[in-house]
Amino acid sequence: MKPKILIALCILFGVALIGNRMKAQTKTGNISISVSEDEKTYEFSAKFDAEKMPKVLGYMDDHLKGAGISFKNTQADADLTLDNKMIFHMKSSPGKLAFKFDKRKNSAEFYRQFKAMCEGLRDLIQQK
Predict the structure, then answer these.
(1) What is the pLDDT of residues 68-92, one digit of tens each?
(2) With contact defined as beta carbons under 8 Å apart, do 82 and 99 qualify?
(3) Dihedral, 108, 113, 119, 124 alpha carbons, nearest 10
(4) What superkingdom does the record give (predicted)?
(5) Which domain holds residue 14?
(6) Is the distance from CB of 78 to CB of 68 less than 8 angstroms?
(7) What angle do CA 112, 113, 114 make, to 5 degrees?
């Protein structure tokens, strides 16, 4: 009887260790950031730890103050037109974020603001 209990405890301990290791790998997952730009569009996409999503969306709120929208707790796949008339496509889910900004539909000032926001997001996402 005692050997069976000892074996069961060893199995449970092993499963617990494997579970904790898998959880740690998920938390420290890979980061992937891509930026592409041509004369018509500016595109940004990132994959990162889902736990960073609230900070990422909060950064967007801070950077686009007065836009008439809050990005906190937002999951989207939509074309957005902000109160200031900035237009872009956003696709987001926990740990994933993608933008497509059409330069032809926006002013040079909007482009500058949007690109600066994406550069800040890149830096924020890369922080440990």
Answers:
(1) 888 888 889 999 999 999 999 999 9
(2) no
(3) -170
(4) Bacteria
(5) 1-28
(6) no
(7) 95
